[in-house]
């Protein structure tokens, strides 16, 4: 066996997207201070990351501004207020936002990419929404944005449904097709199968394969590594795993694994120490028994989130008996 395994080196074409603000905002309805968002932005710059996802581009009709913070909507006025001077060419960092099919006023909310600090629109959708997702991707691309296709809850749909989605996305300008383990249910063997499935279906289109892993089974980092070894060049993470429910692959762990000399983990550790550890005292995220249970059962973590927010958050047996009885 070679003493220099290929995954110990780095691939310069591999890009890291930090979605701390977007995914982490699902924990607190995106009610972040400008100082917090600015600190994460500065860390992404200083750490040498390739993309920062600053939030959602979703509708205030669905997510009222009285309840949700500005990064659920990413109105251009707010984007310009915090990121107006951002230059992706000078910094090497591109800014992204996610638009959900069925929850975004994408036909009117997006301006030309030349008028916005945003460089990428990530289109998130369920299998039954693929037609709208295709329209969203094409519309955003016509406005000059790089686009991705994020098929959610892939662990909970059939291969036929996956095939239908991949066939539809193959003909779009999306640069990346992302494997999204929304329920944190997948194991290494399933990541292998999905990666090969996506790659074969999209061969010849020039599309990259991405990975967005959730940590319900504490496998987000491991599954991301597995995807990288297979050839995945677009990977998502959040600082300290900050994200809905059990959270995500940790940015600080991922940068340490990648061995790319352009990455510097210290700015990320600084955000964890100065901002995320204090926030952890106020908000609940990260692996726990209820999230582990929903992950094993291939269920959306909403029931575990509700339980953790209830009067008996550590009654794990009570939660287990409840969800098993409902199957």
Return the CATH class of the largest domain.
Alpha Beta
Could you tell me the strand content as a percent range?
5-15%
Helix content: 40-55%
Assembly type of the chains comes to single chain
The CATH superfamily of the largest domain bears the name Aldolase class I
Structural class: alpha/beta
**Uncertain segments:** none
Residue-averaged pLDDT: 96
- Counting structural domains, the number is 2
The backbone outline, from C-alpha atoms, is globular
* Sheet with the most strands: spatial strand order: 1-2-3-4-5-6-7-8
The name CATH uses for the topology of the largest domain is TIM Barrel
The number of distinct β-strands equals: 8
Describe what you observe in this structure:
The radius of gyration is 19 Å and the shape is globular. It folds into 2 domains: 270 residues, Aldolase class I (TIM Barrel), CATH 3.20.20.70; 37 residues, no CATH class. The protein contains 14 helices and 8 strands. Helix content is 41%, strand content 14%. Helix 2 packs antiparallel against helix 11. With 327 residues, the protein is α/β, with parallel strands linked by helices.
